[in-house]
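Subject: Sanity check before I submit

Could someone independently write out the structure tokens for this chain? I want to compare against mine line by line before I put it in a report. The sequence has 509 residues.
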Amino acid sequence: MIIRDWVINNARRFPEREAVVSRGVRYTFKEFADRAARLSNALMSLGLGKGDRVAMLDRNCPWYLEFYFGITQAGMVAVPLNYRLVGREYSYLLNNSGAKAIIVGPDYIDTINSIRGEVRGVDHFISLAPAPGYLLYESLLKAAAAEAPDVPVQENDLAVIGYTSGTTAKPKGVMITHKNIVANAVNFLVELPLGHQDVCYSPFPLFHSGGYCVMAYFSRGCTQVYDDFELKNTFEVIQQEKVNFLFIPAGALLFLPGFKDSDRYDLSSLRLILTGGSRTPVPVIKQLFDIFPRLETIYDTFALTEAAPLVCVIPKTRRMLTESRITESSGPECYGVHVRLVDDMDRDVPPGGVGEIVVRGDNVMQGYWQMPEETADALKGGWLHTGDMGRFDANRHLYVVDRKKDMILSGGENIASKEVEEVIYEHPAVADVAVIGLPDEKWGERVHALVVLKEGMRADEEEIIRFCKERLASYKKPRSVEFVADLPRNPSGKILKKELRKKAQEALG
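---
Independent answer below. Compare away.
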């Protein structure tokens, strides 16, 4: 199976059912299939063919899913771009990917115009709204045929190049095949009770691996509602569209309980929440069950772009909360995924031990675009080396201990920043927290906590440190606490700790 089969099958099975709802635009599955086919044929009429890369730069918009499906059903490769970058970063991504065309949203025309002279291979600039020097997207589609092109596409053909955030070096282009995306869809649909009657709302950025997840829900025939995250809008959409399933980044999820007007909305349709990027603290889970009266299950995940992205998922139910059975685990491996924990020599660690999480399955990437050495290192021995450290419990549920690079070595002791964060999260005044290691002459590194307080709440450094000392071994407690307005996160909700370490060290001089 390849991913264009979903478009064809849904148009046949549910022609009049709504496929996409976004920013006031609504397409049925039949209309969506026609538009995706028109995009394929329009690009082919411009001379593009199988294997050519086509980039997209816009926020979540009504045309994002047809970009993924329209590009890939013609055997071309979709290159979704992070809309939060600046001009020189787009120059790198476009030149590195070798994109021959780019589709640009109206808010980004000036940015792309500023780098057109630096981009070597882009022959076709296409705009979603009228703009001088650009082909108009809707005009191209109107002139093209609505029948899917007969292009031979195989499951191991490249479908998407999704770039990493580039927090450690230049962004890496993660090569995702049709087979990877189909395997990810199978993993999701085995784990989640979704049917074609469900309405899925996603404020997850679609340029990220969240886009592959939305494609998975599309494969089931679910109606896709998507937009950028905005707190009030999330509650309005749930009420208006009678949303059953909310797919939301961990960073955004933390804000839902703080919305004071939630009781003004009819939220009775929502029964499932799926989140990723970091674990959901138990106090937040309790608040979510209080807000959404018919919410059945909150699914926490362990996922990464290189695994397209799902690796582990665990359901957390209202009953589990009542019986105090919610743990900090990420659950067992998904259907079709296998996980091991290894030491630096790639040997399995003993039961109960901590090791690097390595992953194998049909969902694992083909490699990094034009980076053979990095690919060989990441896929050493046929296993994806995630850079995350973890342990298994007796039920083989995975506990992600920390990023390998985020472990803190203080006074000869290894300290997992996540363990300290989980304790600080329990403080009633804390809304968000990140723990990092900073240089220390005596201890090598010291534990430093950056804390975001809830609106209207107060706490000081001494109080946070004392709170931790009562709940952790003394050497694990923060030695300093900094209060901040917010924490930087990537699109999947993961806190950008490298950025925090850099700022903190600059402040130290």
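---
OP: Matches mine. For the report I'm noting this point. The chain has 16 helices and 25 strands.
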